[in-house]
Amino acid sequence: MGAAASGVSTQMQAEHDPNASFPWWVRFLAKGVAILGGVLSLFFGVLGLITLSATCMIAILLQMTSGALIIALEAPFCCQFVDFIEKISRFSESRQLWHKAVIYGIMGLVPIFLCIELNTILGSGTIFASGVIYGFMALGKKADRSNMMAAGDPAWSPQVNQSNIP
User: Fold this and answer.
1) What is the pTM of this model?
2) What whole-number distance in Å separates Cα of residue 95 and Cα of residue 130?
3) What does each C-alpha distance from 110 to 3, 127, 161 come to in angstroms?
4) CA dist 96 → 14, 38, 126 (Å)
5) Which residues contact 57 (CB under 8 A, 6 or more apart)?
6) Is 157 exposed, middle or buried (CB count within 10 Å of its CB: 0-12, 13-18, 19+)?
7) Whether the Cβ atoms of residue 16 and residue 24 lie closer than 8 Å to each other
8) What's the pLDDT tens digit per position in 105-136?
9) Integer Cα distance of 151 and 57 in angstroms
10) Rounded to whole angstroms, how far apart are CA atoms 64 and 53?
């Protein structure tokens, strides 16, 4: 029990680290959108099981699997009764942001490509949206104007004298 409590305190310190590259609300936004995407994909997956198309059935099953996996990765407290979820969530938290972006993006796009229906677009689209948010986080913060001007092309600098063309 003590190990679990120390793990939670370590995670809380990492989430509220003042030296982190993003504010706490951006990280919670990404987690929140991913959890919402997982829940919505499960909900719309159950609604989409009433279909006659085999490819749509496969897409719905993939969508529901992706939703359950994302809930297990982003909100492991929802799956405390499963022993191996804690190890998987620690592994997920140790991954770089672009890894999550690619995985969530692929998990969101595959069901949409298999079956373009409203329930797969709404369910898997939110998973893809969380992948996009993680992708933007992986790109990092934008530099300030002076750094952008220093690193840019000198032809675009406002200090360059442009000749007037008649």
Assistant:
1) 0.74
2) 15
3) 38, 11, 52
4) 14, 20, 20
5) 49, 51
6) exposed
7) yes
8) 999 999 999 999 999 999 999 999 999 999 98
9) 51
10) 16
